[in-house]
Design goal:
The chain has about 750 residues and is of the alpha/beta class. The protein starts with 6 loop residues before the first strand and ends with a strand.
């Protein structure tokens, strides 16, 4: 029987980024996270302390107090749609509608994941505003897709009438909530409702279809309240008299249980959830135990450059999201701008599709920028997604994409057809899938990688997300293209016309930059939730467990018979991919492993060490990573046996003085030193491009001659097609010489820095 072998991925953060880059990236992330936290706190406060006091005066709890009592003690909740209606003004109200006046989230109740939909009774007594119905329906859709029980905490005064025309009618208006109630019931998804106060008009229908309805003594459900019933005043009727628990529990039987207060109602709801089947998560772990990533998820903010034009290593991101930082990559040798593979999250299998960044070496084609979809990558992710669907594996799309490849060759290669194939797969996927917009989500690439129009169960954004057809500067160029020359420079000698074009382009770019703000996207429900980078792992754990909780409602296969095995077998040698060499870390006379995996030595004990020679390979994630020697001199001894598992810093060899018994110099060709003195590491350009020695024209240089640098510190940037790939120091040391000027065109392999 076939089985999946998982391989270590990722490196210690100090090997990925220098301390200055880490601090810069963390600082930017902290600013964005703080701004997001302020907005979330504003939403959670509802209409403020006075509104909370009014709720308490009625002897009731607020929605958040009910949720806190409902969920399992000490567990987190995962809110969806927090910022809906953020910043939006409404006719007839001096106040905004935080969160559209409703709270929707995933929570654990008796160790089962449930979807909670709770009217925020501190915002206009839980009224429905524009986008309130859509937000409720979005939560119901999550429950339908994952077969999660739904708990409604109803305290709703009905539509906010001054804006009723924007929430009453239409395909997704308030009435569609009840359509979803019925569909959930038809598909066997349990629904439990607690009615805690007002439940007027349309709000009265929402709990009725539920399997269990609990009413407190202060609750009522009415088609029309006392204010609308002729004669109510003369008869001294209240809405409680018309549709309270006395009526609906004991007479109409529209409710099941009558309880004195909120606390008792929540206990009753928890008791009903406890009666439901237990979660199947432990069964679907297939004997595995959950484990945290080997690389701390709290390091995620340090990985993403503060400058969104700069690249990063998506494998380092995956290493901080998956159990044990263990991953199996499928088809790594083709379509290398895309990464496809499987890993465990909370002990459960999940598939991953992600964009690689920087310059990608595609076998048989050459180097090309990542973050773009080419024919090979499209075909790969289509086949992988189709196999995951066949196998019942939940799929996570990690987006950081600029769009599709364009041009004459792209059209000749039939990218439209390959893209349509991918869109067909995404549109018909049955297994759960989720989309995370890590950074760029641009153009048709956003669609192709399961953006919100293709109905992922949940789409998450991060504070770094930029969602638009194209970047502001690019769109301004497209808008004013007829006024620009072939180099996209303004083609006029008239000063006034030039000024007008410059102003117009600047305004266009600025407007698009505002539109790309993830908060705006969340406010209009173009994305479900904005999640800080260091919380993505927790979200994936919740989504993995929610995906595998139910049994028997969708196709699943045990891992031995996955279609993915067929895909990998048929790929043959193309399933293997070349890896860039890594330099052995040197500490005294010891040569240490710069990564994790299984070591296979390439030299025999006593082999003379030559700068640039291969010491051996470390096999990880389905690839063999060459480990090379920085500096020559001495001979290698004490090498581990082939097949030895190594971690970061494991000694791979020791350097000793050459003896008479040692072999003559090996046939390995020494690396060119370009005149560098002994003990100096030459840093070379990895590709053709433009060298930039400073992050932007007005900023100081990354380093100067004589500067002390840490391992992985940024030395400069190589720009290719508006993509900026950092040049990093392979070792701690001193900058001995800078061999090219700022803005110089450089060729692949050209020496750029000496590090002593």
């Amino acid at each position: 029987m076939a089985r999946i072998l998982l391989h270590p991925i990722g490196r210690e953060l100090s090997h990925v980024l220098g301390p200055d880059d880490q601090a810069r990236n963390r600082g930017r992330a902290a600013e964005l996270d703080a701004a997001l936290a302020d907005k979330v706190a504003t939403v959670h406060a509802g209409w403020g302390e006075s509104a909370v006091a009014r709720v308490h005066e009625k002897g009731k709890w607020t929605a958040w107090e009910r949720i806190e009592a409902l969920k399992d003690p000490g567990t987190d909740v995962f809110e969806v749609g927090t910022l809906v209606n953020w910043g939006r003004e409404f006719a007839g109200s001096k106040r905004q509608a935080p969160g559209a006046g409703v709270i929707t989230l995933l929570a654990r109740v008796h160790a089962r994941w449930v979807v909670v939909i709770a009217n925020d009774n501190t915002v206009a007594s839980g009224a429905w505003w524009p986008l309130t119905p859509e937000k409720i329906e979005r939560a119901q859709a999550v429950a339908r897709r994952l077969r999660l029980p739904v708990v409604y905490l109803v305290d709703c005064s009905g539509l906010f009438l001054p804006e009723q025309s924007r929430s009453f009618s239409g395909a997704t208006g308030a009435g569609h909530i009840f359509t979803q109630n019925a569909r959930l019931a038809a598909e066997g998804v349990p629904q439990i409702a607690g009615v805690f106060g007002d439940c007027i008009a349309g709000g009265g229908y929402m709990p009725i279809i539920s399997d269990r309805v609990v009413m407190t003594e202060s609750a009522y459900m009415v088609i029309a309240g006392a204010a609308l019933i002729k004669g109510a005043k003369s008869l001294h009727l209240t809405s409680l008299d018309i549709g309270g628990p006395e009526v609906h529990v004991h007479q109409s039987r529209c409710a099941d249980e009558r309880v004195p207060d909120d606390a008792t109602a929540i206990r009753a709801i928890r008791a009903e959830v406890e009666k439901l089947p237990t979660t199947a998560v432990a069964f679907y772990r297939h004997g595995a135990d959950p484990e945290p990533p080997r690389h701390d998820p709290s390091e995620m903010p340090a990985l993403f450059p503060a400058d969104g034009r700069q690249t990063y290593d998506i494998e380092e991101v995956l290493a901080r999201l998956v159990d044990g930082s263990l991953f199996h990559e499928f088809l790594p040798g083709v379509g290398r701008e895309m990464i496809t593979g499987v890993a465990r999250v909370s002990g459960l299998w999940m598939g991953f599709v992600a964009n690689r960044q920087g310059l990608i070496d595609e076998p048989g084609i050459g180097k090309r920028p990542g973050g773009v979809l080419y024919r090979e990558g499209i075909a790969k992710i289509s086949a992988f997604a189709r196999a995951c669907d066949s196998d019942g594996i939940p799929l996570v799309w990690l987006q950081d994409i600029s769009g599709f490849d364009i041009g004459v060759q792209a059209e000749h290669l039939g990218l439209l057809g390959f893209g349509s194939n991918l869109i067909y797969q995404n549109s018909t996927q049955q297994a759960p899938f989720f989309t995370v917009l890590l950074r760029k989500a641009s153009g048709a690439g956003y669609y192709a990688m399961s953006g919100l129009p293709y109905e992922p169960v949940v789409q998450l954004a991060t504070p770094l997300t930029r969602l638009a057809v194209m970047e502001g500067r690019t769109l301004a160029i497209a808008t004013y293209n007829s006024k620009l020359d072939d180099d996209f420079q303004i083609a006029t000698s008239d000063p006034e016309e030039r000024r007008q074009i410059e102003e117009g382009m600047a305004k266009t770019a600025a407007r698009i930059e505002v539109d790309m703000d993830p908060v705006r996207a969340a406010a209009v429900m173009d994305t479900d939730e904005i999640v800080p980078l260091d919380r993505l792992r927790s979200w994936l754990e919740a989504l993995a467990e929610a995906s595998w909780q139910g049994a028997g409602y969708r196709r699943t296969k045990n891992p031995r018979i996955w279609s993915l095995h067929d895909l990998e077998t048929l790929a043959g040698p193309r399933a293997l991919a070349p890896s860039a060499a890594m330099t052995a870390a040197e500490e005294g006379d010891e040569l240490r492993a710069p990564t994790v995996g299984v070591f296979v030595p390439a030299v025999a004990p006593g082999t003379p060490l030559v700068a640039g020679m291969r010491l051996g390979t470390v096999e990880r994630a389905g690839r063999a990573v060459p480990i090379v020697v920085d500096t020559g001199g001495g001979a290698a001894v004490d090498l581990p046996a082939a097949g030895t598992s190594v971690a970061y810093g494991t000694v791979l060899a020791r350097r000793r003085a050459l003896s008479a018994e040692d072999a003559a110099v090996t046939g390995a060709a020494p690396a060119a030193t370009d005149g560098a003195p002994p003990g100096t590491v030459v840093v070379r350009a990895e590709s053709d491009g433009t060298l930039w020695l400073r992050p932007e024209p007005s900023a100081p240089a990354f380093v100067e001659v004589g500067a002390t640098v840490a391992e992985a510190a940024s030395l400069g940037l190589i720009e290719v097609m508006k993509t900026f790939t950092p040049l990093r120091s392979p070792a701690a040391g001193v900058v001995e010489r800078i061999l090219a000027k700022d803005g110089a065109s450089v060729r692949a392999g050209a020496p750029l820095f000496w590090i002593r």
